[in-house]
Amino acid sequence: MTDISARIQQEITLDQQLALHTAATRLAAEFDGIYGTETIKRFLHSSYDQFATAASIPNYLPLLAERFARQRLRALARVEGHHRDGRPVVLFLCTHNAGRSQMALGFFVHLAGDHAVAWSGGSEPGIEINPSAIAAMAERGIDISEEFPKPWTDEVVRAADVVVTMGCGDACPVFPGTRYENWDIDDPAGLSVADVRPIRDEIERRVRRLLDELDVPATR
């Protein structure tokens, strides 16, 4: 255990410990027959560590850790062949995972429904989703306010059929055999809702085109 991880473990409150225990129980039931308790706990606690050094709302940490661990375990199950349902998997990456990649994820999930899977991540995850991005997406009836900035992990990248990068440059991970696209789109950080709208609309156009290329019918 690293010094940072050891300090984080010492600072976990009793309520957080109970919440993590409950999360581990839920994940163990969800992945029963695929991954054992030790693997579940390792992914859960490493996911917790990812957020504990930066998160500003400690009470949400166990929930964020559970959501991120679930995504990582689902990705690992795909990589290892435990779960293959034929649906394409797309990963959207940008620098802070707070604007462009979150809007792309929002459009993709909204339009693809259950016909495809999408995740997002950042090379330097921010603290919260860009408020202007949230407002601009809400104008289209898409709520991304419950999303959260997060890093990418090897299993998440390896599970993707398509990796779309937006501004993370050389920091973006590269794995052989994976399709990569780079979308040259302005960063909405610090912009007003009015200035984010053209960025949002460009992202929607590109997401719709990607869905068409993947033969995934847009549900809206």
From TrEMBL:
Superkingdom of origin: Bacteria
Keywords assigned by UniProt, alphabetized: Arsenical resistance
Phosphotyrosine protein phosphatase I domain: residues covered: 88-213
Pfam families associated with the record: LMWPc, Phosphatase-like_N
InterPro entries found in the cross-reference section: Phosphatase-like_N, Ptyr_pPase, Ptyr_pPase_sf
Keyword Lyase appears in the UniProt entry: no
Designated name of the protein: Arsenate reductase ArsC
Species lineage: Bacteria, Bacillati, Actinomycetota, Actinomycetes, Micromonosporales
